[in-house]
Specification:
- The structure holds 2 protein chains of 2 kinds.
- In chain A, about 80% of the residues lie in helices and about 0% in strands.
- Chain A is mainly alpha-helical.
- Chain A has one domain.
- In chain A, α5 packs across α6 and α5 runs parallel beside α8.
- Chain A is elongated and about 65 Å long.
- In chain B, α5 links the parallel β6 and β7.
- The two termini of chain B are about 15 Å apart.
- In chain B, α3 crosses α4.
- Chain B is elongated.
- Chain B has 2 domains: about 220 residues, Rossmann fold (3-Layer(aba) Sandwich), CATH 3.40.50; about 60 residues, THUMP domain-like (Alpha-Beta Plaits, 2-Layer Sandwich).
- Chain B is α/β, with parallel strands linked by helices.
- Chain B contains 10 helices and 13 strands.
- A 6-stranded mixed sheet of chain B has the order 5-6-7-3-8-9, with helices on both faces. A 4-stranded antiparallel sheet of chain B has the order 11-12-10-13, covered by helices on one side. In chain B, strands 2-1-4 form a 3-stranded antiparallel sheet, covered by helices on one side.
- Classes of the chains: A mainly alpha, B alpha/beta.
- Chains A and B meet through α1, α5 and α6 of A and α2 of B.
- The structure holds adenosine-5'-triphosphate (ATP) and magnesium ion (MG).
- The site of magnesium ion (MG) has 3 residues of chain B, from α1.
């Protein structure tokens, strides 16, 4: 069985269900929309700042403020792509057609990742330009040092969030359980741990806290992170790889 | 050809399949029979390598299922008609299966036509009736034009027309020389379709026999007699050298003697008969007899001595 056949099949699968369209659309709308609103509000705030404070504003990162919400849609996308196989029972039909489970899983995740990346890339650039337009005279330019990296990194970040979610859904084999665990982690636990001084040292190694570093252009005044943009991104890659690896081991060894 | 050798499956404490060995041959319909929980579905899942055997192995034309190149072109299976994404259209569901096995997309239209779902091909399968879902599952099994077909209780919940259709389909597939393996817990259903029977109970093989042999051995015909003068009747029959069995509620049963002869005998001795009726033991009864010792979920527990029926099964 050629891998190309399985990729082809997974592409048909992913584009023939509605959840793909609405989750990815929501990821785009949330990221761009919220980024635009927050950029508008930040413009007022920036105009009240003194010169010293203005050193530390990061217009690029500001325009990506909607990522926090947009990533939840990406999580739902990742969870549903894999989890729906289990919740519908399709997994048994799929594995009867493709009994080599590694080929099945990596084709599925591969196709979903490519699609997520394509959407995330468009989302990222639109988010940046819309946000900068809203920031008016405080805006950054795509040619400024580190900006292109941050915008591109924003797309990679969104993509890896989806990959991480796919890995978790493969481990847990249930979309409800996966969302029930991922949503609180990204929406509650990570922000809370990251917000408290005592726990920030641990929280900075969580996938989202480490991963968002890649969208930073200006290092904040009191930055304590022991890693740079790509270092933080590397931590996130490790998380996603770990989740997918564990998912693969579960799929390989358990009865379908 | 499917070969099952020493196959066992344990779920925790529960031994669902216990050292099964049998073969499913081409050109005939093989019925896979057993009461609820006997291990039929589990065995079929292991045939497709969905569940891993605790011991033993299954070979499809001598190969492991996982090693088949484009397995849908070797084995088509309908294990659970609901095992699909309801949000996907019937066409797309079959298309993704076809693509994964290098089957041309044109084949999707053909099988939809075969099962009569062409009109709803673009509809999401979520809204399908039980029968339509079953037909879609069968379309999936036929997709790769496989030589081996496997159906797990395909007629469950179908209307008479649907049952009729599936029965004929299985027979015609076997007539084309294919291997057809179909599970059921209804003996009467199997009597109409299967040429060969594999019977299991509590995961163990109880019988592996041709349908003809099973019927010959089990469709016992006898005559039931009821008389207010039961004792005398019994004596009369006894003197005539006829073996009588006393059944429940005052009836006698006689094997292998025509009812005419019994009636005349009674008349000669001026015995009153309230009943003189030829009977045919149903295959269903024979099946229940066979599996009685291994039925897990009794409605009322009255375990008869199972295994009583001498078969070719057990240890091949
Ligand atoms: N995944 C599982 N985990 C635990 N036990 C299981 C599992 N699958 C099946 N069993 C048990 O194994 C036994 C055999 O089940 P199986 O579904 O194979 O029976 P069956 O012959 O198909 O029955 P039915 O006629 O009701 O469909 C049952 O006791 C069942 O409870
Ligand atoms: Mg079953």
């Amino acid at each position: 069985m050629a891998v190309a056949q399985v990729l082809n099949s997974e592409w048909t699968k992913i584009k023939s269900v509605r959840s793909t369209v609405w989750t990815l659309t929501m990821a785009f709308v949330f990221t761009v929309g919220l980024g635009f609103l927050i950029s508008l509000l930040s413009k007022d705030q920036f105009s009240k700042m003194n010169a010293r404070e203005l050193q530390f504003i990061d217009p690029t990162l500001t325009s990506f403020a909607g990522t926090g919400l947009g990533q939840l849609a990406m999580i739902v996308f990742g969870v549903l792509v894999v989890g729906n196989e289990y919740s519908t029972g399709m997994i048994r039909t799929s594995l009867a057609a493709v009994p080599r489970r590694g080929a099945f899983l990596f084709s599925k995740i591969g196709i979903a990742t490519l699609l997520a990346f394509a959407v995330a890339l468009v989302t990222s650039f639109v988010t940046f330009f819309v946000g900068q337009a809203a920031l008016g005279r405080f805006k950054a330019s795509i040619g400024d040092p580190g900006v292109l990296r941050a915008v591109f990194g924003g797309a990679l970040y969104m993509t890896l969030i989806a990959v991480f979610a796919m890995g978790v859904a493969t481990i847990l084999r249930s979309p409800m359980l996966s969302l029930g665990i991922l949503m609180p982690i990204f929406f509650l636990i990570a922000p809370i741990l990251g917000g408290v001084e005592a726990t920030r040292k641990i929280a900075q190694y969580l996938p989202d806290q480490a991963g968002t570093k890649v969208m930073q252009v200006v290092t904040p005044e009191n930055d304590v992170a022991p890693y740079g943009p790509w270092g933080g991104f590397g931590i996130m890659v490790a998380w996603a790889a770990l989740a997918v690896l564990c998912g693969w081991l579960v799929l390989k060894n358990r009865d379908a | 050809m499917i070969e099952v050798a020493g196959l066992s499956k344990r779920y925790g404490q529960k031994l669902a399949v216990d050292d099964l060995t049998f073969q499913v041959r081409p050109g005939i319909v093989t019925g896979f029979l057993g009461p609820n929980g006997a291990g039929k579905s589990t065995t079929m899942r292991m045939m497709l390598d969905l569940d891993r055997p605790t011991a033993g192995a299954v070979r499809i034309d001598g190969k492991r299922y996982t090693d088949l190149k484009d397995p849908l072109t070797y084995v088509g299976a309908l294990l659970d008609a609901k095992a699909l994404h309801g949000g996907r259209s019937a066409y797309n569901h079959l298309l993704c299966l076809a693509q994964s096995n290098g089957i041309p997309a044109s084949r999707v239209g053909e099988v939809l036509d075969t099962v009569g779902l062409t009109a709803v091909a673009k509809k999401r399968s979520k809204g399908f009736s039980l029968g339509m879902g079953q037909r879609l599952g069968i379309a999936g099994a036929l997709l790769g034009d496989p030589q081996i077909l496997m159906f797990d209780e395909p007629v469950n919940g179908l209307d008479p027309e649907g049952i009729h259709w599936i029965r004929n389909l299985m027979k015609s597939l076997a007539a084309q020389g294919r291997t057809v393996f179909v599970s059921s817990h209804l003996m009467s259903e199997m009597a109409l379709t299967a040429d060969h029977l594999v019977v299991i109970g509590q995961g163990r093989l109880l019988a592996d026999t041709s349908m003809a042999d099973f019927i010959r051995t089990n469709s016992r015909s006898y005559v039931r007699l009821r008389s207010p003068q039961q004792e005398r009747l019994r004596d009369v029959l006894h003197q005539a050298g006829i073996t009588v069995v006393t059944a429940g509620n005052g009836t006698l049963e006689v094997d292998g003697v025509a009812s005419e002869q019994l009636g005349e005998l009674a008349a000669q001795h001026q015995l009153v008969l309230h009943e003189l009726s030829p009977q045919q033991a149903s295959l269903e009864e024979a099946f229940m007899q066979l599996t009685a010792g291994s039925v897990e979920y009794h409605a009322h527990s009255e375990p008869a001595s199972g295994q009583g029926w001498g078969s070719t099964g057990g240890e091949n």
